[in-house]
Specification:
heterodimer; A: mainly alpha; Cytochrome Bc1 Complex, Chain C; two-stranded antiparallel ribbon; 14 helices; 4 strands; globular; B: about 450 residues; mainly alpha; two-stranded antiparallel sheet; about 60% helix; disordered C terminus
Chain lengths: ~350, ~450
């Protein structure tokens, strides 16, 4: 008996390797004209793994205090061997992850993959998307540069608008009334401990649910397969689908490397808490549609404060969007067409407002 | 419980009773307040009445006064009316009585009398303290030492008196942007007379000061950059004691702001030589009203150099001037070269923040060297230049390293991309080979 066979037997006796192998061999992915959208989930997971690995490497040098944060990132960028590459990949990968997670969410929405029995898969996915945004928001402050500090001030002001609990949330996020070194330490804690812990559990749950209910087939394709059962096709997950996913990951890696080498992530100037806010303060691109909307709202809409109204509307919209599977009837009809229409409107709104925010400055 | 009360032929409830009581109280209160108002109004009218303005606001110049202007003047703001200067009785509507000798009416005030009239209050420290304890009260004594004051004392009433600069009825504090003596307006106020060819003809002094000042670095700082501490006429000449600074005191005037330059000039060889030659210190090289931003070309032996006005080829000063100019140029060039390479690296995404910060120190050395020029000691200038060059050597090296690193990164990227493309092709071929003969697995076939 060779070493490989011995190891296989050892694993089989303890973990049921034979069953695992059988499971992997029998796992399939539906094959149809929309199958390429299935890659987005795996791509987001790949970028998350990149985030974890590069984040751990950055942790070796990063110092989470107002006096040392900027200098430590500067040290990483200039003195640590390949520090610039690790930090740039971490930053670019974070942005790509937000993009792929959002694209995955919209693809699931338009392909109606959230329908019964996959409501909890959608819910866990939405929570993961919010966690990804939380990672972005908390990580943005960590280099402690001028733009990040003032953008965090603006960003934490927004939940502060919520009636009754707004002030409490603001103080909780900032670790005080204002953005200070205490906010940095707090955001660091969220970024490297709280959010990764929750995200890991949620990813585990999400994958478990995906495995439990399998890949959803779009309603149109499902109908076609019902009428023409012979056209129903599937692809083996291992190795066929996984190898294709691997190719996509390699492409993502090349893109990340290119961005890091040609456009390393800027460090900016060190934050000065006593200086006045410089012009051009803005959040990361994925918050821009909200930022621009709040900026365009008048000071008062009727009797209610404009910004508060905006915050409440966005809160309500996100809540409804998250609970969408429970509103969808699951069969074609007027309500489902309305939901699809709302989805197109939401996508167009996010895209137009984001572009407008950059044009309007 | 509610009692009922008989009222004439009807009955009122307790709530109606309460309403009646409230109405009674309100009526009493109204009568009380109205009575007080009736008693107060004539008194208020007597206090605020100004019959002078009633008439003079309707007249044309020179007797006319704009009511709005007067009411916004500092005197009106402090509760003073026309009588403070002109006497009279503004409470009377009768013109004869209002402008009678008995009421102390003075009427028109002669120009020669104006400074002493103003001084009656403005030189009274005890009186002025009541308005602002920090207000100066030495304006009149200063004025008497000024060229204006001296000529006025000799009977020349053409010279400036208080109202020429501060206006008559629209006097505002110097920190009011509409004031004629607000820093930005001072030069215009002086130019009103000093740029008037006809007016100044009898004094035989130049009239181009304002035109020159308007082109100067000081004017630029004051009006374009909005630096209210930048020099205007009164900064160098004084305000109430205005007179041209003497030859010996020019550097004292300039050095009130340019402290180090003044100290270095005083410690250098030029001070005594200039004195002996009767040359005024700073303005010999920098001029006076039309001072331009100094450039490195001013020092040395080339075109635009002021040193060659006195020094000629072969003398020690000529050589020293050339040496100092070359040193400044050397550091200036080194800073620009370093800045150029660092900016190029920064634009390409390299982190060169520390090097750029260090380069700012070299710029400081250059500034110090330019100031040290006033000592006209090449060895002192050289000390700053050497310190600056040491910094630029280091920043230049950092710039080179950043560019080399950039090249290394791009080469690394190229190698990585080639490797990834190779893997992708290999994977593609592998998948094709693996799936040759297969077209996806149908459910039926798997079953």
């Amino acid at each position: 008996m060779g070493i490989a066979d011995g190891l296989r037997q050892w694993l089989d006796e303890r973990f049921g390797w034979h069953e695992i192998r059988a499971f992997i061999e029998h796992k399939t992915v539906p094959l149809h004209r929309y199958s390429y959208w299935y890659f987005l989930g795996g791509m987001t997971l790949f970028l998350f793994v990149i985030q974890v690995l590069t984040g751990i490497l950055l942790l070796l040098y990063y110092r989470p205090s107002a006096n040392e944060a900027y200098e430590s990132v500067q040290y990483i960028m200039t003195q640590v061997r390949f520090g610039w590459l690790i930090r740039s990949i971490h930053s670019w990968s974070a942005n790509l992850m937000v993009f792929t997670a959002a694209a995955h969410m919209f693809s699931v929405f338009f392909l109606k993959s959230y329908r019964k029995p996959r409501e909890l898969t959608w819910l866990s996915g939405m929570l993961l998307l919010f966690l990804v945004l939380g990672f972005g928001f908390s990580g943005y402050l960590l280099p402690w540069n001028t733009l990040s500090v003032f953008a965090t001030k603006v960003g934490t002001d927004i939940p502060g608008q919520i009636p009754v609990i707004g002030k409490w949330i603001l103080v909780f996020l900032r670790g005080g009334e204002d953005v200070t070194g205490a906010t940095l330490t707090r955001f660091f804690g969220f970024h490297v401990a709280v959010l990764p812990g929750i995200a890991t559990l949620m990813i585990g749950l999400h994958l478990l649910l995906v495995q439990r209910f399998g890949m959803s087939v779009p309603p149109g394709v499902e109908e076609e397969w019902k009428t023409k059962p012979l056209e129903q096709r599937e692809m083996r997950f291992f190795p066929n689908f996984l190898l294709r996913e691997l190719m996509a990951w390699y492409v993502a890696l090349a893109v990340l490397g290119g961005l890091a080498a040609l456009k390393p992530w800027e460090l900016g100037t060190k934050a000065d808490l006593f200086a006045s806010a410089p012009p051009g303060i803005r959040p990361e691109w994925y918050f821009m549609f909200m930022f621009q909307t709040l900026r365009m709202l008048p000071a008062k809409v009727g009797f209610i404060d404009g910004e508060l109204l905006g915050v409440l509307c966005f809160g309500a919209a996100f809540l409804v969007w998250t609970l969408l599977p429970f509103f969808d009837p699951g069969r074609p009809g007027r309500l489902q067409r309305l939901i699809t229409g709302i989805g197109f409107f939401a996508l167009a709104y996010v895209a137009v407002m984001t572009m407008y925010a950059y044009v309007a400055k | 419980m509610c009692n009922r009360f008989k009222v004439l032929d009807g009955i009122i409830t307790c709530s109606e009773r309460a309403l009646h009581s409230a109405a009674r109280v309100a009526l009493h209160a109204f009568v009380f307040v109205f009575s007080i108002l009736l008693l107060t109004v004539p008194t208020l009218d007597a206090q605020t009445k100004n019959s002078c303005l009633d008439c003079h606001s309707k007249l044309d110049a020179p007797l006319g006064i704009e009511e709005e202007q007067f009411s916004s003047s500092i005197h009106a703001q402090k509760g003073m009316n026309c009588t403070i200067c002109h006497g009279g009785d503004p409470s009377s509507d009768d013109m004869e009585r209002a402008m009678s000798k008995a009421s102390g009416f003075k009427g028109h005030i002669e120009r020669a009398q104006i400074p002493s009239l103003c001084a009656k209050c403005h030189s009274d420290a005890a009186y002025m303290r009541g308005f602002d304890p920090l207000l100066r009260t030495d304006q009149f004594s200063e004025y008497q030492t000024s060229m204006h004051g001296k000529l006025l004392a000799k009977g020349d009433t053409h010279v400036a008196v208080c109202t020429d600069c501060h206006t008559m009825h629209n006097i505002r504090p110097p920190n009011d942007p509409e004031s004629s003596v607000y820093p930005v307006n001072v030069a215009h106020t002086c130019a009103h007379c000093h740029a008037d060819e006809n007016y100044m003809k009898q004094y035989k002094i130049p009239i181009n000061q304002f035109a020159l000042y308007s082109t100067s670095v000081h004017h630029d700082a004051l009006t374009v950059r909005g630096d209210l501490s930048a020099p205007t006429c009164s900064t160098c000449h004084g305000s109430h004691g205005a007179s041209p600074p003497g030859v010996a005191s020019v550097q004292n005037v300039c050095s009130t702001c340019h402290v180090f330059q003044g100290q270095l000039f005083n410690s250098g060889p030029h001070k005594d030589i200039f004195s002996a030659m009767g040359l005024p210190g700073c303005i010999t090289c920098h001029s006076n009203h039309g001072i331009q931003h100094p450039t490195d070309a001013m020092i040395g032996t080339g075109k635009g150099a002021v040193c060659t006005n006195c020094h000629t080829e072969g003398d020690a000063g000529y050589t020293a001037a050339g040496t100092m100019h070359d040193e400044l140029e050397k550091l200036n060039d080194a800073i620009h070269t370093s800045d150029e390479i660092l900016s190029r690296a920064e634009k390409a995404g390299m982190e060169v923040g520390e090097a750029k910060l260090a380069l700012a120190a070299a710029q400081d050395n250059l500034t110090k060297a330019r100031v040290t020029i006033h000592s006209v000691r090449p060895e002192a200038v050289d000390q700053e230049i050497k310190a600056g060059l040491k910094v630029t050597d280091s920043t230049w090296q950092e710039g080179l390293s950043a560019m080399a690193e950039l090249k290394y990164r791009r080469e690394g990227l190229l190698v990585s991309i080639v490797a990834i493309v190779f893997v992708l092709i290999a994977l593609g071929l592998f998948i094709r080979r693996m799936e040759s003969g297969q077209t996806g697995v149908s459910k039926e076939s798997r079953q």
